[in-house]
Amino acid sequence: MKAGVVHAKNDIRYEEIEKPEPKEGEVLVKVKYTGICGSDIPRVNGDACHFFPNVLGHEFSGTVEAVGKGVASLRPGDRVAGIPLIPCMKCVDCQQGNYSLCKHYSFIGSRRFGSFAEYVAVPEANAVKFEDEVSFEQGAFFEPATVALHGLLRTPYQGGKRVAILGGGTIGMFVMQWAKIFGAKDAVVFDIANERLELGQRLGATAGINTLDEDFMDQAMALTDGRGFDYVFETAGNTITMKMAFQLAANKAHVCFVGTPTRELCFTVEEWENMNRKEFTLTGSWMSYSAPFPGKEWELVAHYFKTGDLKFDDSFVFQKLPLSRIPEAFEMYKTPGTVKGKILIDSEK
User: Fold this and answer.
1) Distance between CA atoms of 102 and 258, rounded to whole angstroms?
2) Sequence-distant (≥ 6) Cβ neighbours of residue 248 within 8 angstroms
3) Going by DSSP bridges, is the β-strand pair 207-210/186-191 parallel, antiparallel, or unpaired?
4) pTM given for the model
5) Could you tell me how many helices (H) and strands (E) the chain has, helices first?
6) Pick from 115, 31, 24: which is nearest to 72 by CA?
7) Rounded to whole angstroms, how far apart are CA atoms 300 and 305?
């Protein structure tokens, strides 16, 4: 089969490798789309790849081609989305259902061959079925959609409250939609790009606030009767928005950092004192799994994509490129600002 194989830093090649066979308890997936994740970029353009040669790709959709011995829940022809984490199932965290925190995990598309290929073999539990109403493009977005939902579930979320989403990227747009699906009174998106704020409102946000406006905090407080937000989800991993979350939080709020930071973060005494004086709760969110594995996050994405309540916008996809052009895709990321949205790799072209 053909695959995009990483041989070294800045060296990903479209070439022929051996097609996998499904072992006992595995299924062979004929890959349709794979999204390039932010974590893939340093594995190709940097030094983060675990080994060489390697086949990356973990946000994927496709069709079950064949099943191994003992597989009962899937059959050839089923449309599936990939679930990349393979927890050890033996450690204390796994025994408690905290699979995201497993220290002995494997991962499809980084620690074992992934979906930048025509076919990928995965354990039966690592393929979630979706119905015909859900497109293969949506299937490739299951993983980011579950990451967003997991962030929401990291708080004791209740409907009827006011929610702030900091960052209008794909994860932020999904967090906003989950907040609305589960009954938010208001869900407000904060970003520096008006087109992202407009997209948020098309997808159901109550309002959008541009944080480049000098009076953005006044605008935010006006929407909350001066109280601030009951739930604040930071999805950008940006130093500015992580500090902003503390300002926007209401008394007794719940703040969740979903975004992955890339720089050291320091708070002034005044900034940090927000937590003391407001008595808000701060938590983090990592990956997208719960018990029983892989968790309700994956089941609910399949359901709400099918019903249409979880909306998918064409602007989520920046470009679709055939697998043969995968080196070109990673070249684009070397020029900041070039890629606006997700690049989907089409393994059938």
Assistant:
1) 18
2) 164, 166, 190, 217, 220, 228, 229, 232
3) parallel
4) 0.96
5) 11, 17
6) 24
7) 8
Specify the amino acid at residue 188: V
Of 80, 40, 50, give the one whose Cα is nearest residue 63: 80
Amino acid at 240: I
The helix (run of H) or strand (run of E) holding residue 243 is: helix 239-248
* Token pair in block for residue 304: 């709400």
Q: What are phi and psi of 195, to 5 degrees?
A: -65, -30
| 332, amino acid identity | M
pLDDT in tens, the chain (349 residues): 999 999 999 999 999 999 999 999 999 999 999 999 999 999 999 999 999 999 999 999 999 999 999 999 999 999 999 999 999 999 999 999 999 999 999 999 999 999 999 999 999 999 999 999 999 999 999 999 999 999 999 999 999 999 999 999 999 999 999 999 999 999 999 999 999 999 999 999 999 999 999 999 999 999 999 999 999 999 999 999 999 999 999 999 999 999 988 889 899 999 999 999 999 999 999 999 999 999 999 999 999 999 999 999 999 999 999 999 999 999 999 998 899 999 999 999 9
Cβ distance 329 to 343 under 8 Å? yes
Question: Quick one: three-class SS letters along 138-197?
Answer: HHCCHHHHHHHHHHHHCCCCCCCCEEEEECCCHHHHHHHHHHHHCCCCEEEEEECCHHHH
Contact between 79 and 42 under an 8 Å Cβ cutoff? The reply is no
Q: From CA 275, how far away is CA 244, in angstroms rounded?
A: 12
325 φ, ψ (degrees, to nearest 5): -105, 20
Nearest to 219 by CA among 123, 63, 39, 210: 210
Q: Report whether 232 contacts 220 (CB < 8 A).
A: no
**DSSP state for residue 42 in the 8-state scheme:** H
The DSSP call for residue 99 is G
